[in-house]
Amino acid sequence: MPIPKELALTPEQLDELMTTSWNMRIATIGPGTRINLTPLWFGWAGGNIYTYCRGQKVINLRRNPVATILVDRNERFPELQGAMFQGKATVLEDADAENADSHLETARMQMGEKYAGGHGEAAEPRRNASTARGRHWRWVRFEPARAVTWDNFKIKPRG
């Protein structure tokens, strides 16, 4: 059964969730039909999700760009809020691809503010200056084709 529209996050609530939540989970298709599900730090800019990552996720996305991303918070059912995105990812393979992306700089700054040097310990937010390196360290831009959001605070108690 689909989530009722009245439980959806507003655009402002979605922006707040995406700019303040620390972790997302990305599901990619690995070799064969295996699903690889991984938590990552991320940025939200221009309606896209950005992450800097390496390894199997990058290999999977090069082979098959289809992925699902989940960002959610809280643990108790009446307090759950989240967004699930389905779409396609693009691996930004080099500095030219990074420079050509019109929203990556916003994501770099946002991640620098959110993670403040790695674990929130830096006194001053730092721009995430990571760039393509080695065989697999890459920025990935995920473009949602479909989104489902929910805010269980909006569920009216029974009775």
Q: Could you give the topology of this structure?
A:
Elements: H1 11-20, E1 24-29, E2 35-40, E3 43-45, E4 48-53, H2 56-63, E5 66-73, E6 81-92, H3 95-100, H4 104-115, E7 138-151
Antiparallel strand pairs: 1-2, 1-5, 3-4, 4-7, 5-6, 6-7
Q: How many helices?
A: 4
CATH topological fold name: Pnp Oxidase, Chain A
Give the strand tally.
7
CATH architecture: Roll
N to C succession of SSEs? HEEEEHEEHHE
Shape: globular
Q: Approximately how much helix is present in the residues?
A: 10-25%
Which CATH first-tier class would you pick?
Mainly Beta
Strand order of the largest sheet: 2-1-5-6-7-4-3
List low-confidence stretches: none
Overall number of domains? 1
Instruction: Name the structural class.
Output: alpha+beta
User: What is the mean predicted local confidence, pLDDT?
Assistant: 91
Proportion of beta-strand residues: 25-35%
Q: Please summarize the sheet with the most strands.
A: 7 strands, antiparallel
* CATH H-level superfamily: Electron Transport, Fmn-binding Protein, Chain A
End-to-end CA span:
22 Å
* Gyration radius, in Å: 16 Å
